[in-house]
Amino acid sequence: MAVASAVFLLVALFLSGGTVGLTVGVVLDQALSPATHHGFPGLGGLLVGTPVGALLGAGTALFLMRGRTPSQRLRLALLALTVGTACALGLWGSVLLGLMDW
C-alpha cells in the first residue's frame, strides 16, 4: 500500500502540474502576445507551460512524499487531481464560452 500510494501521488502531481502549467501558460501567452507572432494562440504556453508544470509537480511530489502516511498521500493525490481537473475544465469552458480563442 505504501509504494502504491507513493506512485499514485507522483503520477497525480505530475499530471495535475502539467494541467496547471498548460492553463497558466496558455493564458499568459495569449495575454502577452494577442497578435501571436507565430500564428498559433497559446502555443508558447502549450510547449513551455505543460512540461515545466509537470516537472514542478513531480518535484513537489518527491518533496511531499517523505513523512506522510499512505492515507495522507492518497488524499493529497486526490486533491491534486481535483485541482488539475478544475484547471482543465476552466480552460475548456473559457474556450467553449468564447472568452478565449484556441
Offer a few descriptive terms:
102 residues, mainly alpha
By DSSP (H or I, 4+ residues per run), the number of helices equals: 3
Helicity level: over 70%
Per DSSP, what share of the residues sits in E-state strands of 2 or more residues? Answer: under 5%
What are the secondary-structure elements, in order, as H or E?
HHH
Total count of strands: 0
Q: What is the rounded Rg?
A: 16 Å
Please, could you describe this protein's structure?
Helix content is 79%, strand content 0%. It has 102 residues and is an all-alpha fold. Helix 1 packs antiparallel against helix 2 and helix 1 packs parallel to helix 3. The chain is elongated, with a radius of gyration of 16 Å. The mean pLDDT is 85.
Topology of helices and strands:
Layout: H1 2-32, H2 43-65, H3 70-96
Compact summary:
Helix content is 79%, strand content 0%. The chain has 102 residues and is an all-alpha fold.
